[in-house]
Amino acid sequence: MKTRWDIFCTVIDNYGDIGIAWRLARQLTEEFNQYVRLWVDDLESFQRLEPRIDAYNPSQMVCGVEVCQWTEPLPDIAPAQVVIEALACRLPDAYLEKMAAMPIKPVWINLEYLSAEDWVEKCHGLSSPHPRLPLIQTFFIPGFGPGTGGLLGSPRHHEKLDVWRRQTGERARFLSGMGIESLPDQALTVSLFAYDNPAIAGLLDALAAFTRPACLIVPEGKASSRVAAWLGLGELRPRQPANRGMLAVHPIPFLYQDQYDHLLWACDLNCVRGEDSFVQAQWASRPLIWQPYVQEDGAHWKKLQAFLSLYRQGLEPETFDLLASAWQLWNAGERGKPEIWHDYLGKLPELNLHAGYWQSRIKSWPNLANELFKFVKARI
Q: pLDDT tens digits, residue range 44-100?
């Protein structure tokens, strides 16, 4: 059954929200044969993630998804059968009024941010009536394991990763396309996609003093200025590498979403931030360092600790303690304690095995798009 979906999303400066909404829209279209209309308030920023977007076209078909400019007022359109408020955005009042006037009310879903905290299982699936209109919204909360909304990830995407890693030369071809023509034998390859963070310098110190050559790949973004300062440069320029000690730094342009996924696949260690890159790094089955989005009330620390309490399963206690210390150092923004980074890098072979084990675990847990499809199918 082909159902019509409207997904509303606002673009924030870190691109994570639209990245999540775009992945979800594509998966519902490609794997579940649904008709999805994605409403986005900033097509120009969206174009940075998806090159097929025309920033000046208010309604266009891209990868089977109808991408529409979210303007105020919204065009005079009929609401879809399923309506998703993605990641703390709010539906236009006029659109809500139209939903309420429909003889068969749409399935209204409030898609929340991912968390590993205990409250997710208690709150996922709860409903809340609109205070004025005859509408009910259901809270859908992504999480880890049964009883949650699941993780955003496509089985087809996982198959592509498996094929990509089996094919000789794919990694070298991808890196060459990024301007990285050759790497020393046994070089450790690290991607850095982070918010502005003073702790970056401490990791770079350790990589520069590492026992084997290291390659740091830095997509254009908020971390670039920290890396430039560590190198003694005014700025990083894409495709102009620099060296210090055992570390070669390779700045690259901002990547499209599909390109960034390949970067995660190509590296031995991925430094990620927010939600979208964090989830994709787990699917890439490589060690990672996560920086949650910083919240003024310190709620990001609870998210960090909740995830670590799950991720520790299967790790030796000594290795987990080291991983937790490194992540806490990273998120506290501290440059000091170089011995922690040195020891952490030395544990990468064990952490790599654990990343593969973790990927097999999350594959067995609920999938967000599949959970949404089942939820809607039971109500339409």
A: 999 999 999 999 999 999 999 999 999 999 999 999 999 999 998 999 999 999 999
8 A C-beta contact, residue 202 and residue 341: yes
Out of 21-30, 51-60, 244-253, 337-346, pick the least confident. 337-346
9: β partners: 40
Domain residues of the chain, as ranges?
4-151+366-377, 155-363
Q: Which amino acid is at 214?
A: A
Q: DSSP for 84-148?
A: EEETT----HHHHHHHHHSSS--EEEEE-----STHHHHHTT-EEE-SSSS-EEEEE---SSTTS
Answer CATH for 155-363 from 3.55.40.20, 3.40.50.2000, 3.30.420.40, 3.10.450.50: 3.40.50.2000
The set of catalytic residues is 17, 275
Half-sphere exposure for 220 (CA within 13 Å, toward CB)? 13
Task: Tell me, yes or no, if the pTM score tops 0.70.
Answer: yes
Spatial CA neighbour of 232 closest among 254, 210, 204: 204
23: its two tokens = 């992945």
